[in-house]
């Protein structure tokens, strides 16, 4: 059996902040509160989880300490999925592959919105001419300073090494394309429903590609994942991807392909999960650092 059913009574701790987790959970009935510094004077409640939502998956996907405490609100029934049984769980419940990836994608999308808003708040604070007393601005200011205060001061960006080393031997899939140098793979502002794995060559990710103020954000090398927010949310591309070398060879992945992909290459689905988790943790660090700058600018 790949899952364990459990029921928790009101106030009972399901997972604890700081613990090393070897399983994750889905709520089947009831609700649960998510806290940082639970039981301490500076306890903060982050959100409430409802039926169908997952939690604790980051600790399993990346073997990372729990970032929060989850507590039952009333009676809460959950299923616990051991990390060692993840492949069995997906094999028995193939629809859960897309469900879990969408869950992480929703978290990424929400955090990206918060990060973009925080950058705008910081820019406003640093511009002497901007209005800093509106109710809307002060509400946003309080929100982002609050995140900085409750986050871990030792929060660090994840290492790229583990992701790179585990993905270097990924097999190539059936849906592939080869691009010549200078080919635009996708443009900023376009809407698409796919992501890519780079198997050969190199790809540049640009802001304002082809304009006077063109900026290359990063250069991707094999084996890199990119364009995942298009696959997850069908959002407009936030940058332009361009082949930087001849015979740049990519694999195209769509959300509806993942169930069949798991049957032939479960390691590839595992690496997509790891990539999304990696990006979420990296974005959390960027957001934290921006909130720190907001706090410092406000308190000068």
Q: Notable features of this structure?
A:
300 residues; alpha+beta; Jelly Rolls; 3 domains; four-stranded antiparallel beta sheet; 8 helices; 38% helix
In total, the number of domains comes to 3
* CATH homology superfamily of the largest domain: Jelly Rolls
N- and C-termini, Cα separation: 57 Å
Largest sheet, in brief, is:
6 strands, antiparallel
CATH-derived architecture of the largest domain: Sandwich
CATH topology tier name of the largest domain: Jelly Rolls
Proportion of residues in helical segments: 25-40%
The secondary-structure element order is EEEEEHEHHHHEEEEEEHEEHH
Task: Please describe the topology of this protein.
Blueprint: E1 4-8, E2 13-15, E3 23-36, E4 44-49, E5 54-55, H1 57-62, E6 69-82, H2 86-92, H3 95-126, H4 135-150, H5 160-167, E7 176-179, E8 184-186, E9 194-200, E10 203-207, E11 215-220, E12 224-226, H6 228-233, E13 240-243, E14 248-254, H7 258-264, H8 266-298
Helix pairs in contact: 3-4, 3-8, 4-8, 5-8, 7-8
Describe this structure in words.
By secondary structure, the chain is α+β, with helices and mostly antiparallel strands. It folds into three domains: 4-87, Jelly Rolls, CATH 2.60.120; 97-158 and 280-298, no CATH class; 171-261, Jelly Rolls (Sandwich), CATH 2.60.120.10. It has eight helices and 14 strands. Strands 1, 2, 3, 4, 5 and 6 form a six-stranded antiparallel beta sheet that branches. The chain has a four-stranded antiparallel beta sheet with strand order 7-14-9-12. Helix 3 (95-126) crosses helix 4, helix 3 runs parallel beside helix 8 (266-298) and helix 4 crosses helix 8. The N and C termini lie far apart (57 Å).
């Amino acid at each position: 059996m790949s899952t364990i059913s459990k029921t928790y009574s009101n106030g009972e701790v399901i997972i604890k902040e700081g613990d090393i987790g070897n399983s994750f959970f889905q709520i089947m009935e009831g609700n649960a509160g998510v806290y940082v510094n639970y039981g301490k004077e500076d306890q903060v409640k982050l959100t409430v989880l409802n039926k169908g939502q997952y939690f604790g998956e980051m600790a399993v996907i990346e073997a990372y300490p729990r970032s929060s405490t989850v507590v039952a609100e009333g009676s809460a029934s959950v299923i616990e999925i051991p990390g060692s049984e993840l492949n069995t769980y997906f094999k028995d419940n193939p629809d859960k592959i897309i469900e879990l990836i969408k869950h992480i994608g929703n978290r990424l999308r929400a955090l990206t919105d918060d990060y973009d808003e925080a950058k705008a708040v910081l820019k406003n604070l640093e511009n002497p001419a901007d209005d800093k007393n509106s109710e809307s601005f002060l509400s946003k200011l309080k929100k982002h300073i609050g995140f900085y205060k409750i986050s871990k001061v030792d929060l660090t960006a994840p290492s790229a090494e583990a992701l790179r080393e585990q993905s270097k031997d990924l097999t190539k899939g059936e849906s592939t394309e080869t691009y010549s140098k200078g080919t635009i793979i996708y443009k900023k502002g376009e809407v698409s429903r796919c992501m890519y794995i780079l198997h050969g060559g190199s790809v540049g990710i640009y802001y304002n590609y082809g304009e006077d103020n063109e900026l290359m954000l990063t250069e991707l090398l094999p084996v890199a994942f990119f364009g995942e927010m298009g696959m997850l949310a069908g959002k407009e591309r936030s940058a332009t991807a361009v082949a930087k070398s001849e015979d740049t060879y990519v694999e195209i992945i769509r959300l509806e392909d993942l169930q069949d992909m798991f049957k032939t290459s479960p390691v590839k689905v595992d690496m997509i999960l790891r990539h999304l988790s990696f990006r979420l943790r990296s974005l959390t660090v960027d957001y934290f650092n921006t909130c720190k700058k907001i706090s410092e600018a406000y308190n000068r």
